[in-house]
Amino acid sequence: MQKIPRLMIGALKGGAGKTLLTIGIAAAFMNRGLSVAVFKKGPDYIDAGWLGKAARTECRNLDSYLFDADTLTRSFCAGAMNHEVSMIEGNRGLFDGVNASGEYSSAELAKLLKTPVVLVVDASKMTRTAAALVLGCKMLDPSVSIKAVVLNRVAGSRHEKTLRESIEEYCSIPVIGSVNKLSLDNFPQRHLGLLPLYEHSGANDLIQQAAHVVEQSLDLDNLLNLANSAEPFDDCPPRDEHQSNRDHMRLKIGVLRDSAFQFYYPENLDALTRTGAELVEITALEARSIPAMDALYIGGGFPETHAERLAENTIFKKSLLEAVQKGLPVYAECGGLMYLARQLTIDETTYPMVGVFEVDTVLERRPQGHGYMMVDVVAQNPFFAVGSILKGHEFHYSYIRSDKVESSSYAFRVTRGHGINGAYDGIFRYNALGTYLHLHALGTPQWSTAILIQAAKYHKTCLAREKDD
Questions:
Q1: 219 and 255: one domain?
Q2: What percentage of the chain has pLDDT greater than the value 90?
Q3: How does residue 36 score in pLDDT terms, banded at 50, 70 and 90?
Q4: 90 exposed, middle or buried (CB, 10 Å; 0-12, 13-18, 19+)?
Q5: What whole-number distance in Å separates Cα of residue 23 and Cα of residue 38?
């Protein structure tokens, strides 16, 4: 039996304030000297970055669509071990999933991990109705352990009193905190949530502001007691052991990581290094050639916010294009795909990009693809065998515009989601592949294996060239 104190912060809907409250709670516990593990339900990079910053550790994503229940439980246990409390932030509304039964919802995750839930209620313009909503959550699935309520965006003491009395009387669930309106609403946001961590020079100050609000407004002792009340795990799977591969110890895997490209799951980077390869972080925002490497991983991000700097950095772009033309393996997701295209158009202004792929990208004001994805691999490419089925997610405001791409030029056929054009995804040229599909290494272990295999081949090719020279 393994005791792992833990809580999930859920909500009635997206935008209720659970991210800021979870950040504040994690930071407040840290201020008390507690060691905090943090997790985010669902595919998300931005919230996870803030949570990790608040807890001064890596935030892991938990998603039973991306990987199976055993893998999810193993990942949670590995991340929670040796910490005094674990915080899981849910996503959307507590019972919101991909269908009417709530599959892959925060509620299902809470049940899988036997985790007590604290429900955040956006109390704007309601009083007793809040009790009806909480009671509905309690009755919809009694196996979900809703242990407490936190009120958010409360107008004042009289409003709070009515809300508290209604919820505690009709739901028999304690209200353990009340946050006044606007207290946590001054954080800059973009699209569906907070601005990325990389774009905040004062991130620590913002986190401590959230911690201060939580310390003044929530009963932290009660929260900690609830976390400690979580039943022990009796089925924590053993942690996977990975041995170094002597061949991989010589490999250098580049990771394009800066304020333009910042979306990486920790497990993806771990998967590339756990057999011995070395990660080399580089930036596309400095005027220098790319260093020597055996493969390159370009994650997602917001290249559109740095389009001018990326376009003007001709030294980096030229060296990258030349390396790709010589066979450098490159795996590029979303923002990485946009960067490797010929150009990016934003509001009728066009910015030249690297030009690996003979396509152009256009940024729109509305999402072009958002949610879970599934694809079939239908064409030979550097990284995945034909016939493979890949699961992931997408969230992009850009689309590809080109008259040169035929269906036979795509590696993936989309069976769920949108991808590049609603039917296909995955452009490949030379040893580079670009896709709107974000993969998680725990659900697609062949991804990291393929990158390492391609890197080893390229490494040998480079050694042979040096010998010939």
A1: no
A2: 77
A3: very high
A4: buried
A5: 9
Average pLDDT, the chain: 90
- Residue 255: pLDDT band (50, 70, 90) is very high
Whole-angstrom distance, CA of residue 293 vs CA of residue 456: 11
Tokens of 369: 């693809």
Task: Give how far Cα 254 sits from Cα of 42, 288, 293, 320, Å.
Answer: 27, 15, 6, 11
Are residue 216 and residue 338 in the same domain, yes or no? no
Q: Which amino acid is at 393?
A: H
- Residue 277 sits in a domain of what CATH number? 3.40.50.880
Q: Which amino acid is at 404?
A: K
Report the CATH number at residue 181. Answer: 3.40.50.300
Percentage, residues of the chain above pLDDT 70 = 91
- In this structure, is residue 236 part of a structural domain? no
Q: Which alpha helices (H) appear in 313-382, and where do they start and end?
A: 314-325, 335-340
Residue appearing with tokens 């991340």: 79
Give 3-state DSSP helix, strand, coil % of the chain, rounded to 5: 35, 25, 40
Residue 192 reports pLDDT greater than 60 = no
What pLDDT does 468 receive? 66
Catalytic member of 59, 77, 334, 462: 334
Characterize 291-321 residue by residue with b for buried, 16 or more Cβ atoms within 10 angstroms of its Cβ, and e for exposed.
Answer: eebbbbbbbbbbbbbbbebbbebeebbeebb
Nearest-angstrom CA–CA distance, 350 and 327: 28
**Whole-number Å distance between alpha carbons of 31 and 212:** 10
pTM for the model stands at 0.90
Fill in the amino acid letter for 362. V
Tell me, yes or no, if 137 is annotated catalytic.
no
Count of domains in the chain?
Answer: 2
* pLDDT tens-digit map of 101-159: 989 999 999 999 999 999 999 999 999 999 999 999 999 999 999 999 999 999 999 99
Do 262 and 169 share a structural domain? no
